[in-house]
Amino acid sequence: MLKQKSRYGMSVPLPDPLDDHKEVFRELVDLGYTDVWSSEANETDGLTPLALAAAWAPELRLGTAILPAFTRGPALLAQSAAAMACAAPNNFVLGIGTSSDVIVERWNGIPFENPYLKVRDTIRFLRKALTGEKITEEFETFNISGFRLARVPENQPPILLAALREGMLRLAGREADGAIINWLSANDVERVAGIVNNEGPNKEIVARIFVCPSDKKDLVLEGGKFAMAAYLN
Predict the structure, then answer these.
(1) Helical axes 74-87 vs 115-129, angle rounded to 10°
(2) What span, in angstroms and rounded, lies between the C-alpha atoms of 151 and 122?
(3) Contact by Cβ (8 Å): 204, 177
(4) Using CA atoms, how far apart are residues 52 and 145, in angstroms rounded to an integer?
């Protein structure tokens, strides 16, 4: 059985202009939502909507689901996470993942190589960097020489890893504070949570659920097929 306390979040940004999101965030709080989670593909970056939420609705827990481990350098990723952790003390969760070759290589011109090792190394680097430790280390996928974070958050944010396959789920259990999962049925969630927690107890599981409020079944199915095809390719 899953013992994690349930929280209910919304993916942001919504279609409204960003400067209208103050009212959106306040409404989410009033409706009982506890979290907002951003992503980073070809819309907004993953942090600006959360920075606005930190100012406009500090009750909300903020998370990235996800920031690609490839598209920011390790030091910049640490700075970004630290800034959000300072803006929303004890209320920010850093979710990272491999993303995809489309986003990383085709859109950002960065080689999409050794994704498993890249996220593992990035988590290990962030664990040290977010404490203010000076880092000079050769990781398998990058080298760091003399980096120290100048603005260290009072409390280090939890780090979650996006995972679907068993190897990445196990990595999330060993190295991260939990896993972010996607494209799973409700029955699948408990099964994959078990894989994560077998590697380390009391891990957080964040599941993105797609909801299509419509009575037009064919339209919903077509939209679902399009979304899945884009994700798989």
Answers:
(1) 50
(2) 19
(3) yes
(4) 33
Going by their DSSP bridges, the two strands 92-97 and 67-68 should be labelled as parallel
pLDDT band at 1 (very low <50, low <70, confident <90, very high): very low
Nearest residue to 12 (alpha-carbon basis) of 45, 30, 221, 169: 45
pLDDT value, residue 3: 61
**pLDDT tens track for 84-121:** 999 999 999 999 999 999 999 999 999 999 999 999 99
CA dist 159 and 49 (Å) reads 19
Helix (H) or strand (E) holding 135: strand 135-138
3-state secondary structure of 61: strand
Does the pTM of the predicted model rise above 0.90? Answer: yes
Parse the chain into domains and list their residue ranges: 9-232
At residue 98, the pLDDT reads 98
Q: Is the confidence at residue 2, as pLDDT, over 70? A: no
Taking Cα atoms as reference points, which of 22, 30, 94 lies closest to residue 62?
A: 94
Q: What is the DSSP letter of 144?
A: E
- Domain covering 9-232, topology: TIM Barrel (3.20.20)
Judge contact between 28 and 49, C-beta under 8 A.
no
Tell me the DSSP string of 152-211.
--SSPPPEEEE--SHHHHHHHHHHSSEEEE-S--HHHHHHHHHHHHHHSSS-EEEE----
